[in-house]
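pls ignore typos typing on phone
fe (ii) ion + seq
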Amino acid sequence: MTIKDFMTNMHRECDHLLTQAEDLLDNKKFEEAHNKYDAFKTQTLLHFAMEEEYLFPLLEDKSGMGSMGPTNVMRMEHAQAKALFEKMDDAYKEHDTDRAFSLGESMNILLQQHNLKEEQMLYTMMNNTLAENTQEIVEKLQSYGN
Amino acid sequence: MFQGLTLDQAPPYTIPIKFYLTASLYLIVLSIITPIYTLHVYSRYDYEVIALTHIFTLGFITHIMFGSLFQMMPVMLSVAYTKVVKNAKIIYSFLNIGLSFFILGFLTNITYMLGLGGIFLAGIFFYFCFISLKTIFLSKEFNALVQNFIASFIALIFATAFGFTALLGHFGFVDSVKYGNIHIAFMLFGWVFILIMSVSYKIIPMFFVAKEFSLILQKRLYILQLILLLLFAYAQIQENIFMLTIIKILLSSCVILFAIFSIKILKQRKRARKDISVNLWYFAMSNTILSATLFIYASILHVDIYIFIGFLALFGGIYPLINAMLYKIIPFLTWFHLSSNMVFEAEMGNVIRKKWMTYQVNLYFLSFSLFLFVPFFHSFIIIAAAVFFFSAILLFINIVTALKYYNEYIKKKVVFE
Ligand SMILES: [Fe+2]
Ligand SMILES: [Fe+2]
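k done
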């Protein structure tokens, strides 16, 4: 498994959690919806941490791109997502279905275009630049946060 | 190593919005002059029909496509147009100057205007192809998306060249109908269709959390389509009717194939909730399938229902697709530009009220239905166009609302000293 495979799978997993939370919300199962949403949030934040604390610095070092290039734009978008999470927390807590859907829509598009850019460019670069240490890096990612 | 690569949302917010606003203005113009000029029109070769079609294709579709490409290229390919502000300005100005001359030329029959319009338009299309291909080639990858984009621009180059040639026919140099047909084929089956495919391959899985299109489709269909188009041009020039019929059937079948696949993928999407854009997408794909089927039928049996087929493809197929896309993109873009300027109070759901988007789309559905009665009661064109006028106005207002929302909130931007 490459870094790109691992991280891309994780993107898909998060997408799926959000759609599940919304389906539950649509069926008015508020409690379960809230739990799924929490799982989505936790998983997404863990993913952000893997990138910001571990993968981005590695890539910046190895490639010499520095921290103000493409990775900085990605960090900025993580911040945008975090601001959205705060609002979504309220919407899910207050069972405000309409608002939760509308914020979920922003979150979905934000993450999708963000993921696309990572998958198209950054992860491909990581696969190339960090090729020698792939196994070690993937293993570390698999146990990240434990 | 990273030259030309960017993850930034390169163009300023106002660039795509200006193209979108202008596009909706052309729809308003179109809805006003349609009843004036079409009460006595019966053939697709009438100058009035050509003029009205071009208000729609150049005034509306092209503006949306160009505006969106400036915006989406960085996201989809991780490469951005260089000097995007200047290039967008040049393209915007010359497209509109050219279009004005061109339409006036057709409506008033003043030939020098027609010629001038044609030169401007051909120039600007070639220029756009040039800067776009230049940008695409900066991409380090050669994946299905890149290939499809390149293919659609190749089709656009041919379409433009043949369109210009057809125009020379109006001055008596060549057979306009022959080259006009090749122009239409390259535009619709080539540029528009391949571009819609390339964007859909990415956008449908993204927006609706759906499965990817099969890679065989993604990597083969555009090649097939380009080859068929070249053969189409050959058969048309040689006036080989039999070959032409076969190719028309194959070209239409490709379109039907894609439409069926996209419906299938949408049906299995994970974001299951229905919204306006899902409905518009189904509607568009159904009309696309219907118009392609009728095109096969008309080609085999040589019945002249081409105005109706064109109406179905443009107004029933392409229009709703664009309408759906606008209501996905504009609210997101507005919110995204605000939020990346650290204005976190803005919310996507408040950019354009859902209610107003629904009204607009319903008016469109109504006017589409009314247009279907026109072959039986010609005067229906007035009512249908009137309803579409309100739909177009509302679309314009909705886009203005987004722009106002942006302007209001961007003032809250915190500037770090
Ligand atoms: Fe990320
Ligand atoms: Fe990521």
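Residues A 7, 11, 47, 51, 115, 118 surround fe (ii) ion (ligand 2) (CB under 6 Å). The radius of gyration of chain A is 16 Å. more later
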